[in-house]
Amino acid sequence: MTHRLARRLSAVLAATLVVCLALVSRVAARDTGKARELRETIDRATLEVAIGRGRLGLDDAGLVHSLAASLRALGAYYGKLPVDRVRVAVTPTHGRQINGSTRCGVSGPVVHLSLGAGVDAKALQNDWVVTHELLHVTFTSLDDEADTFTWVGEGLASYVEPLVRVRAGTLTEATLWTELLAGAPQGLPEAGDRGLNRTHTWGRTYWGGALFWFEVDLLLRERTAGHASMRDVLRAVGAAGTNVCVDWPIERLLATGDAATGTHVLSEVYARRALTNAAPELADWWKKLGVALDHGHATFDDGAPEAATRRAMTSD
Ligand SMILES: [Zn+2]
């Protein structure tokens, strides 16, 4: 996540558009093909893949297989995919970049994926962008004409994406914690910040948002003795039939999350981080969870008071 660059664009033809960029490793390109459409059923959801003309670094079957695997992994996290149709529009491009954006198209959620000719199947499967965009697909677009709440969706996609991929085996637990501990300070408020609703820097939008959801997850687990987590929040939001094409008021999201967990954790953390400049106590979190950075790599202390919570956050 430390190299993640993203920005929210104003809607032109669609209600919601999110753009995310990443770099991947160098590979050979495949032949140019004609524009074509492919379809696959995952659980009870339909994956539609529209591929534009140009060179890709993997064949159509490999591309659909990789996208389907990401969608299955998200379904495994949710328990059941909360959407019945996902369309991915793939535009072949140059280089090794994977760029993603998600918006509400005329016929439903659409992930726009620009794939460099240097991206092969392994690089795509090991990358974060597709999972990040699919999380945008499944989560409500908040009523947000002033972009006040961009951090909510970006933070959620940023926090949950590595959790989904660790469960799927495409990311290690050590890498997840290494990236979280290394990147988290970028989410901390600085002098002059006015809370996540009003301070819209890149660091506060992505890392501040990710820390918000991390704190929600941690507090839910602590206060319910591990019976509830932010996954219950996500499941409840998904079960309400929302997705990127459905705008909710922020109050409905908070009420739905609190009702699903039988707590006030979501509202409480929102009041603290969205509306004030209060900083989370990162050092205390890492200490009680038993995780630290040593020369740029995560180390774990299974004797820490909440080491079991740390393990549960990436596995249950
Ligand atoms: Zn995003």
What features would you describe in this structure?
This protein is α/β, with parallel strands linked by helices. It has two domains: 134 residues, no CATH class; 164 residues, no CATH class. 42% of the residues lie in helices and 22% in strands. Helix 6 packs antiparallel against helix 9. The radius of gyration is 19 Å and the shape is globular. The N terminus is likely disordered. It binds zinc ion (ZN). Zinc ion (ZN) binds next to strand 2, helix 3 and helix 4.
Strand content: 15-25%
Main sheet: strands, sense, barrel? 7 strands, mixed
List bound small molecules: zinc ion
Q: Give average pLDDT, whole number.
A: 89
Q: Count of DSSP E strands?
A: 13
Globally, the shape reads: globular
Classification by helices and strands: alpha/beta
Instruction: Report the radius of gyration as a whole number of Å.
Output: 19 Å
Number of domains: 2
Strand order within the widest beta sheet = 1-2-8-9-7-5-4
List the total number of helices: 11
Distance between the termini: 22 Å
Q: Identify low-pLDDT runs.
A: 1-29
Order of helices and strands: EEEEEEHEEEHHEHHHHEHHHEEH
Give the proportion of residues in helices.
40-55%
Notable features of this structure?
single chain; 316 residues; alpha/beta; 2 domains; seven-stranded mixed beta sheet; two-stranded antiparallel sheet; 13 strands; globular; binds zinc ion
